[in-house]
Amino acid sequence: MSELTDFGVKRLRDGVRSGEFSAREVADAFIVNVSKAKELNAFLVETPDHALAAAKAADDARGRGDTLAPLAGVPIGMKDLFCTNGVQSAAASHILEGFEPRYESSVSQRLWDAGAGMLGKLNMDQFAMGSSNETSAFGNVVSPWRRTDGGNAPLTPGGSSGGSSAAIAARLCPAATGTDTGGSIRQPASFTGITGIKPTYGRCSRWGVIAFASSLDQAGAMARDVTDCAILLEAMAGFDPKDATSLDAPVPNWEAGLNPSLAGKRVGIPKEYRMDGMSPEIEALWQQGIDWAKDAGAEIVEVSLPHTKYALPAYYIIAPAEASSNLARYDGVRYGQRDLPDGAGLQDMYAATRAAGFGDEVKRRIMIGTYVLSAGFYDAYYTQAQKVRTLIAQDFENAWGLCDLLLTPTAPSAAFGLGETTDPLSMYLNDVFTVPSSLAGLPAMSVPGGLDKQGLPLGLQIIGKAMDEQNVLNAGLALEQRAGFTARPDAWW
Amino acid sequence: MSNYRIQGATGEWEVVIGLEVHAQVTSKAKLFSGASTAFGAEPNTQVSLVDAAMPGMLPVPNRECIRQAVRTGMAINAVINKWSRFDRKNYFYADLPQGYQISQLYHPLVGEGVIEVSLDEKDPEAEVKEIGVERIHVEQDAGKLMHDQHPTRSYVDLNRSGVALMEIVSRPDMRSPQEAGAYLTKLRSILRYVGSCDGNMDQGSMRADVNVSVRKPGGELGTRTETKNVNSVRFVMQAIEQEAQRQVDVLESGGRIVQETRLFDPDKGETRSMRSKEDAHDYRYFPDPDLLPLVLDDAFLDECRATLPELPDAKRRRYEGDLGLPAYNAAVLTADAETARWFEALLAESARIQKKGEAEVAKAASNWLISELFGALNRLGKDIENSPVSPEKGAELLGLVADGTISGSIAKQVLEIMLETGDAPAKIVEEKGLKQTSDTGAIEAEIAKVLEANPDKVADYRGGKDKLFGFFVGQTMKAMQGKANPQVVNELLKKALG
């Protein structure tokens, strides 16, 4: 039954419902794949029992003739940023190594309530800070993809949700949760030829999600195609009174609302995204996407988002500022790692614990954040960045006067080799197309558009109006149908 | 009142004082979590995942805490900001699980207000001064470190972590320890009236940071120091006195005042340096991204206003005006919410029993409460809150006096017995045979004896010494063991003496 792992969420759900195969068979197939893929280092913790228990519940329910829950029989991967009851939740950091929460994040709880099972906790950039998965304290994830140059150089699966993207691309799970602060769902999706959506800020509860930058963090769905993302997101989203920034709005039935026609829709092409030195391959892909959108019935309009160039600097002030405060709780006092040198006092314990527990990138961002919030610099950096953020949101508002959706590339390049990008600033440039919509809290998704000349996937990004996930998904479906993306990495692991 | 001066070698010095009062909000649950706030529970038994700052936990504002702070603001006629915001104050300490305190720096919930303070609330002639309140903001309390549990380790109790505080920041409008004491007393009275804080300073639910500077009268403001966490009105006054004197001594010996945080040691009665400005934290305040701005609508504000009780100043004016009480009585009875509540219960019950209007029974009731019951409670070392006599029984006692069943002096005896036994006054009067008599025959017999025993005084009286009348009344009452109806005694005596 090895083909079971080639099925996506919808196919698995429907197959279990119809009795074509059992949930147990599905779970077993994926558990085998997970266990054989250690080389990818996508999973930090494997939880086959969890997946099997959910499968049993699904099979039992079917046996009784009960109506099956929306995700019954579908095992998924859970990004390590989500707190999962009794299962290590470490945000891929040493400082939380061994931390097993006694509570379940709202999003994961919703998934379990919807019948999904958990195959394990997925590797990621430490505290979701990174674009290549190289900042994980437990070793980087290796992308299942390789260049066609025969060099077999290990590639990044993107980040920070790189464990999620690699696991889906490698058929270790049909879908996974991701979180996106500045592109952490969309860029890895683009790098691995899968689909990922970050909904409107507030759609998915942040309760129980280990915080990176609270005003930007948003959970989302990653899967093989648009329909699967719609199904998964529908189960994840919803108002949560435990999160004061949660959107108190009903969750539409996105799957049922899927419609690949873009007739009557205006798709905006933001001219500022056409940057100097943009790779011709990315430019060609973008043009291809424009043509597909036209073919789907859309009217193409050029729009301007004039403050785009300030988005990245503003993001790399706001996100570290929030992170520097959010990560203060990892102090060695109550949980997680504690480093208490002989004869040390409280301050020494803080210093030793945090020096040993946090990785370099996390420390870098804590220092940046501490600096931009400090007396004398606050207005020059933080206040200014907040103003930029407002202007960027206004840019989008103005664009919505001219169009319904925006189409851009997801990332400025295909996946790069592990260890190839060592300069933090170059690494931050990966987020250049994804950060503006994060700052504005808008729904955005990446769908695979094609392969570059090295045989690596490239993604197209669709950005929509706040609360308009449906049209984002619809446009994604329109592109997906025209791209006919079927490439997949050969299993070398 | 504002003439408080410190006499230094170089002349007089004026003291400038501002108070930042931290008042724990009366609420069953904490500011951002559902955990309980009860005082005195076992360590770490009232701690939610949010209070312990577990990974992924988020704060959600508790509406009741906001409501209480808004009502407090309304009670001091302050501006209520319909748009306010929470900020994070970042610093590391073991009693601060999040590594930041959620507070309000930039946009507090409550803006400018004012509190009228009299140096002596009970003296209607005392000068009244308006002390400005700059702002009230709400914030989280920290946990508590315990250093006495283990020889080499410190323990942390997070029960208090996340409890809602109001920080009530005064303008530097006070000029003497007495003014500061009066301000604090008045503020506590208002908080108790409103019910937004129990005002129990000994339990730490109200504490003050005291800002003090000195200057030559009318001169430029001096550098201030802040003495943290002073927990009684008396200590606040002492701390100001000590700190102001210390500053004068430093300045007069050629030194300068360092802006610093100080601690008050009540045992030694002095303040000492805790940390200087150079060591001060950079708190890196910024808006808490876990929380949306707090936006209040008119319906909420109306509800807050509708539930405000009559406040001490208004109540005092009503007691004087509508009830016709002397200013002193009105001031004493309104200084404290519990006393006023007790008095009003006594008043209502007295009016009911005596079938009179409240204004008609108010004076007698207030006099009895102030001179008789307060005196008795004072001797017993009890507050009005735990008075062994209820307002209902007090009213019953006053009713017995009013209808002539007992005299005022017998009423004192009855009260003593009530305090001891808790019995109803009518039962005591009945059992002890204390009923007042209007039996003219018995009274006339005693009067005859008194006149017979004092022929010289009778002669003097008849010769024009009217004042001796009181003597005869006293003697007759004594002979009647206080049980004679004084009015009847008066009438019969007048008749007997011609």
UniProtKB/TrEMBL annotation, chain A:
Entry annotated with the keyword Protein biosynthesis: yes
Chain ranges passing through the membrane: none
Keyword hit for Nucleotide-binding: yes
Assigned keywords, A-Z: ATP-binding, Ligase, Nucleotide-binding, Protein biosynthesis
EC numbers on record: 6.3.5.7
Active site: K79, S160, S184
Amidase domain location: 27-473
Catalyzed reactions: L-glutamyl-tRNA(Gln) + L-glutamine + ATP + H2O = L-glutaminyl-tRNA(Gln) + L-glutamate + ADP + phosphate + H(+)
HAMAP family named in the record: GatA
Function, in words: Allows the formation of correctly charged Gln-tRNA(Gln) through the transamidation of misacylated Glu-tRNA(Gln) in organisms which lack glutaminyl-tRNA synthetase. The reaction takes place in the presence of glutamine and ATP through an activated gamma-phospho-Glu-tRNA(Gln).
Subunit-structure text: Heterotrimer of A, B and C subunits.
Family: Belongs to the amidase family. GatA subfamily.
Protein name per UniProt: Glutamyl-tRNA(Gln) amidotransferase subunit A
Taxonomic source organism: Stakelama flava
From TrEMBL, chain B:
Upper taxonomic lineage: Bacteria, Pseudomonadati, Pseudomonadota, Alphaproteobacteria, Sphingomonadales
The protein, known as: Aspartyl/glutamyl-tRNA(Asn/Gln) amidotransferase subunit B
Homology family: Belongs to the GatB/GatE family. GatB subfamily.
Enzyme class, UniProt record, top EC level: ligase
InterPro entries from the UniProt entry: Asn/Gln-tRNA_amidoTrfase_suB/E, Asn/Gln-tRNA_Trfase_suB/E_cat, Asn/Gln_amidotransferase, GatB, Gln-tRNA_amidoTrfase_suB_CS
Catalytic activity: L-glutamyl-tRNA(Gln) + L-glutamine + ATP + H2O = L-glutaminyl-tRNA(Gln) + L-glutamate + ADP + phosphate + H(+); L-aspartyl-tRNA(Asn) + L-glutamine + ATP + H2O = L-asparaginyl-tRNA(Asn) + L-glutamate + ADP + phosphate + 2 H(+)
Residue span(s) of domain Asn/Gln amidotransferase: 341-497
Organism encoding this protein: Stakelama flava
Organism superkingdom: Bacteria
Biological function: Allows the formation of correctly charged Asn-tRNA(Asn) or Gln-tRNA(Gln) through the transamidation of misacylated Asp-tRNA(Asn) or Glu-tRNA(Gln) in organisms which lack either or both of asparaginyl-tRNA or glutaminyl-tRNA synthetases. The reaction takes place in the presence of glutamine and ATP through an activated phospho-Asp-tRNA(Asn) or phospho-Glu-tRNA(Gln).
Database matches in NCBIfam families: gatB, PRK05477.1-2, PRK05477.1-4, PRK05477.1-5
Known partners and oligomeric status: Heterotrimer of A, B and C subunits.
Protein EC: 6.3.5.-
Keywords: ATP-binding, Ligase, Nucleotide-binding, Protein biosynthesis
